[in-house]
TrEMBL record, chain A:
Family annotation (PROSITE patterns): CARRIER
Name of protein: Phosphopantetheine-binding protein
Entries under SUPFAM superfamilies matching the protein: ACP-like
Matching InterPro entries: ACP-like_sf, PP-bd_ACP
A Pfam family reported for this protein in Swiss-Prot or TrEMBL: PP-binding
Domain Carrier, chain residue ranges per copy: 2-84
């Protein structure tokens, strides 16, 4: 697991108050919203805010592919890496 | 004058939860040591309780056992100051030009607790969130009595206050410590509550020593049969008939 994956998992736990979960409980390709981890729409907004703050990147909430970036830790890590380089 | 029964009650404050703990406090009331401790709400699934503030946890911890086994139970929620820690966090973020937390924002409104109550219990009965002056207890009882009058077999009344952040200290002087009181009110004539109007009093010198909800709790714990709660030009008279 990359440092970025680990970092994003910890961010999810801290930002969303998942007190009973550790980073080992979140799979890299596990679905975050709805099924899988079971996060909801308020979590999506909160996580979007946390990612923007943590990595200093902008997220366009209306962009079509934003939803895809938030599918899993893998997709979030790829998104953050791409944005940080850009 | 309104009449009602107090079928059951529950209360929580730091270090105070059981009937016996409240009985001891009622005989020798003191301000509990400040703490961040919140009541146990492990009866809620972890994913559902994670966003609950201490205020919400206090309300749930006293209300949940009283609602046990009752379906279609209207709720009257009373808090004068509400979610002051959330409000303060949001205002601090605004002052620092930081983006606002959607969770903090959505749960800072005064009816957030009754909304969560409705969702988590699947309860669709009437629910009211009141913010009154220092006599919110009495206004809540009046609201609950009107629901009983309409035919509700029981009404849950929850009065709760959170310790405000220190920045509010110059303006909020009626929350000695965080507390919640839950009352299950039913039709009956064991208790009477009446209101008399008096000359407007501007000083705070003739307030009751403790917030009204805690004063009532003392009366319930010590079998005291009469209470007078003055607030500004209003004088509330409580009478227990046995």
């Amino acid at each position: 697991m990359s440092d970025l994956h680990q970092d994003i998992k910890q961010l999810i736990i801290d930002a969303l108050g998942l007190e009973d979960i550790s980073t080992h409980d979140i799979g890299n390709d596990q679905t975050l919203f709805g099924e899988g981890l079971g996060l909801d729409s308020v979590d999506a907004l909160e996580l979007g805010l946390a990612i923007q703050k943590r990595y200093g990147i902008k997220i366009d909430a209306d962009a079509k592919d934003t939803r895809n970036h938030f599918t899993s830790v893998d997709s979030l890590a790829a998104f953050v890496s791409a944005r940080q380089v850009a | 004058m309104i009449k009602f029964n107090i079928a059951q009650w529950r209360a929580w404050a730091p270090g105070l939860m059981s009937v016996e703990e409240w009985r001891q406090w009622s005989h020798e009331p003191v301000i509990p040591a400040p703490t961040d401790a919140a009541p146990d709400v492990s009866f809620l699934p972890a994913m559902q309780r994670r966003r609950l503030s201490r205020l919400a946890r206090m309300a749930f911890s006293v209300g949940w056992p009283l609602a046990e086994g009752l379906e279609r139970l209207p709720l009257v929620f009373v808090s004068r100051h509400g979610e002051t820690p959330r409000t303060f966090d949001i205002l601090s973020d605004l002052a620092n030009d930081e983006p606002l937390s959607p969770t903090q924002f959505s749960l800072s409104v005064h009816n957030a607790v009754i909304g969560l109550w409705s969702i988590l219990r699947g309860e669709t009965s009437e629910m009211t969130a009141l913010a009154c002056a220092g006599d919110g207890l009495e206004h809540g009882v009046v609201e609950a009595a009107s629901l009983l009058e309409e035919g509700a077999p029981a009404v849950l009344l929850v009065i709760t206050e959170e310790q405000p952040p220190a920045a509010y200290a110059p303006w909020i002087d009626d929350v000695p410590f965080p507390y919640a009181l839950g009352l299950l009110l039913t039709p009956g004539d064991e208790w009477q509550l009446s209101l008399t109007t008096r000359e407007r009093v501007e000083t705070n010198s003739d307030r009751s020593q403790w917030p009204h909800a805690l004063n009532l709790l003392r009366a319930l714990s010590t079998q005291q049969s009469a209470l007078q709660h003055p607030w500004k030009n209003r004088l509330w008279n409580w009478q227990h008939n046995r």
